[in-house]
Model the fold of this input.
Amino acid sequence: MKSIKSFLLLMVLSLAFTTAALAQKNYTEEADDAFDMKMYYEAIDLYKKAYSKTSNRVEKRRMLFRIAESYRLTNNIRQAEYAYLRAVRAKYSDPIVYLRYAQILKSREKYEDAIKQYKIYKEKVPDDPRADKGIESCKQAKDWVENPTRYIIEPDRRINDREADFAPMYADRKYNTIIFTSTRNEATGRTDPNTGQTYSDLFIIEEDKKGNWSRADLIDRDEVINTDVNEGAVSFDRRFTTMYFTRCPMEKGKVLSCKIYTTKKRGRTWSDPEPVPLGPDTFTYGHPAVSRDERTIIFASDMDGGYGGLDLWMASRRSSSRPFGEPVNLGPEINTPGDEMYPYLREDDHLYFASNGHIGLGGLDIYHSKKVNENWTEPQNMKVPINSHMDDFGITFNKNQRSLEDKKAEEMGFFSTNRRGGRGEDDIWHFRLPEIIFTLSGTVRDESTLQRITDANVTMVGSDGTTVETKTDNTGRYKFNKRQVNKETSYELTVSKKEYFDKTKKETTVGLLASKDLVLDFKLKPIPEDPIPLPEIRFDLAKWDLKDIYKDSLNGLIETMKKNPRLVVELGSHTDFRADEDYNDTLSLKRAKSIVDYLVKEGIDRARLVPRGYGERMPRELDKDITIDGITFDKGTVLTESYIKGLPSTRKREAAHQLNRRTTFRILRNDYVPTKTAVEDVDTTGYGGIALRPDENMVKLKAKENAYTFPIIINRNQLRASYIKNTDAIYLSYDKAMDLLSQAIITVEDFTEGEAAIKEDGTIVENAEVSLNTVRIANRELENVRMIVTYDQQPHIIIGDAGLKQFGKFSIDEEREMLIFEEKAETEEQEN
Done:
């Protein structure tokens, strides 16, 4: 490791090696001083000289270990391996020698030997998790090497020099400018005794339209940014006008802390850098990663309260003009007893960083974690080829969509590594994730004739929320192209055509690791023209109430209606010929209506159901042999009044009457379009809003960025609120509060502080508390709900568990994406 890359580590490690000089002080004092000042190149030669001058075995073992450490800290792993082996054979007393030796062996890809040393260390220090992680890393490494990911990597010789080049970062909106850290000869600093190279500076390089890189140049020559000490590891705001970077000062005979500085771009120059206050000067701070709005910064530090050497910490603030608040450790999911550094934020909710403490291949590996409900997920190793057995760190992504399309890549960017194949110590490599392309096509045919159906509607709904429609061409084919079929997505395709039943099938790209042309063919069943008898539904004589025992007979119809949402059907009910014709017409209509009422309760839109009473006027013609009550009637029989009266027994006549007392359904149309919008969009409140059913105890959630949103009614005006779990109050954005105030939806009297909550210019003071007359979510309405007005808040309303609990017991159904309140009746029952 070189320069800024290792400097943060070296400052932390210096505290771990403060062993007092022993008996041969006159021979070892100079070597110890060089080691403690992290001048490892010099320390190696001095310890070798001191080793030959002493006969003290304890001191010799200590010197062997220090020589090994110095080789490791200058990244000479070949020499470090041999030096640690000598220290182990000499039986150096500190068990840490076995851990260090194992780590070096792993970096040399000697995994079986490394496992043996990890096991020895585990026996001696059983509570240190680094042993188990090291063993697991060695086992995983072989599989990762044999099964690399789809990334394509290559060193970029146009950027790199023979010295160390690392920590690249895109520096403009077009993503054709890069700023990186380098110790090349053009750097302004003097020679660093810790690395033997020049102190690192920031360099800039630009790519022209033909893809050629300019010659790397210092970011400035006025020593505003670059000085005679180490500078590096930058981060930008979303406009690329404010830069954050690391500076590690040096002073003879002293170890000074690294700090993060910020500077603003002024044309081609930069303002004087100012330190970013993050904590006491006794600790070191570096490797900034700033969110797009500059309100959050993640950085590496050795502050108290961490889990190892360097940890990742996060600090936040309300606006970019304010100082950051007290840093918070990112916790054990991210941080380890090892070192975490070089964080990078992608779209603010994807964190990439380097670590030597998680399960990895060796040295520093790059990991990825995603923010879900304000928490970072377990980091995932980016595996081979992004990671190697050497140090891999400092990744940055190209976010220019046009550039990605030109290169036919899903992702691309740069990262740093000191693996073989580059030009210098650390080099900048380019990476690209080739685009996976999916298409989905097929044919639609008539099930009964196998003829291709033209102009059929094909609707594809994805699990990612996308909906795409097309039609079959004159050959009965349809196709969705690569822009319409996404990776890691499950799809439901529905084909519809007038005079046919709808057909639905499923397809998925989940788990597919290579481009593929998916094929899904359909066969549609024609809708019959004649009425279709329903399974037996019997009514008592002269009655029209639908009995519970016959409701199951309607399940097939309900399923058909739900699978074919464009169908409009007629429910036709028939009587026998007893009683007069007018009476039978009325009775049959009532029976048809009772069935319609039941279907509506089961979720079928009433507008799709036409009840009709045929009375006795359409005697049944049997299309097959039917046996009822032990009596069989032959196919083709027409159950007319004269036929039934001619039957020889009352029993047979009654069975024939029962067959005539029937209900049928007939498809009238296959082009139904709801007259209202979807259920969640129906305004049933009179408030002019959407997605709200105040008579129900639930509302539909919509995923948006890192939160869910849902409808909420404030003083009879519908808005949307964002659910963020751990929010301790209900927050109202300044912009929305001003909007409500300007419309007199809220007034000065609604503020707890009254007129004091309104500034002279009519604006609302920050953190003012306002009491809303009524707030309604689903079927829950509260009065005098307090909200806090906050500046720089993007969602207009933020509410968490504490706020929702005011409305009652609730749960979040993530699968259905619903916010559900406990039924009031159940709540009252529990209370009683």
Summary: Residues 10-25, 676-694, 825-832 have pLDDT under 50 and may be disordered. The longest helix spans residues 581-601. The CA atoms of residues 29 and 345 lie 45 Å apart.
